[in-house]
Amino acid sequence: MSGDRQRGPARARPSSFHERNNQLYTRPAAPAGYPTVVSHYQIAPLLAAWQSRPDEVAALDMESSANLDLSIVPVHLDNDGIHYPDGSRLTWAQAARIIETPNQCFEIGGEGEPRAIALFSETTNALRSLMPTSGAPTMLVSGFSMHRIKGTEPWADTQAKMRALTPIAGGRALDTTTGLGYTALIAARAADEVVTIELDPTGLEIARRNPWSSELFTRPNIHQRLGDAFEVISELPSGGFDYVLHDPPYFSLAGELYSEEMYRRIYRVLRPGGKLFHYIGDPASQSGARVTAGVLRRLEAAGFRALTRQPAAFGVSAIK
Length: 320
What we know:
Blueprint: E1 5-6, H1 17-22, E2 36-38, H2 40-51, E3 60-64, E4 71-78, E5 81-83, E6 89-90, H3 92-99, E7 106-108, E8 115-116, E9 118-121, E10 126-131, E11 138-141, E12 144-145, H4 154-163, E13 172-175, H5 182-188, E14 193-198, H6 201-208, E15 222-226, H7 229-232, E16 241-246, H8 260-269, E17 270-279, H9 286-302, E18 305-310, E19 315-319
Parallel strand pairs: 13-14, 13-16, 14-15, 16-17
Antiparallel strand pairs: 1-4, 2-7, 3-4, 4-5, 5-6, 7-8, 9-10, 10-11, 11-12, 17-19, 18-19
């Protein structure tokens, strides 16, 4: 069988301001050299097709995805299961188990048992895993999604956050919490350089195994820093960034990242006129409204101006 067929035309690196911002939000390119990674979204239609075939049909040739819907490949179905172009195979029993585990993504290698993409972090004492959605996967940390998934999906969620910062025209961007790297990936398409900070090495390992995050580890203008954002930001140069995307975990999990001192540190690294977007959470919820009011008060105390609620992005924007 032949290799991947890309969904849509291949993209050259944007070369102008308008090209950069027009192509800012497209999906990542399908990565080369990754193992087959699937979820129930890809497997359920194949199992349904196999079970509904006429009795006299011994095999089916279909199309599916081997990288969580970034691209499509031909797959062969027979009594032994689902055969992928890289030589990996899922038995029908394994396929049924994947369908019965809708909150997990699985790596398929050879003819071994599918491996859930999940790791326990000794840094944060939490289980991290890759969870499929109708679009890009999200990361679960002790069962909590790190992206909005109700009425949206993680790539669209990240697009909404980034629109609160655009237009991005070159310059340097700071992403204070890497996660799966979607923010850094989108920013890197328009900014000259992106610095992204991650607390947990296990989180980066989950990202490394996510096909949607592959460019986080290959784009030359993305630079990763490992450590606590509250501390790492103190090591960055004053006025060194044109944009900051601050997307901390829930307030109850990372209160220090919502503190006035954190906002003063962000203010210091922004150039005059630099833009901040701060993700907070659902502004219509009681807790979201309360946290937002406190954030606006502390941002103003830290020196920010032009404070603007961004309800579509579940956050606020501000200017130094």
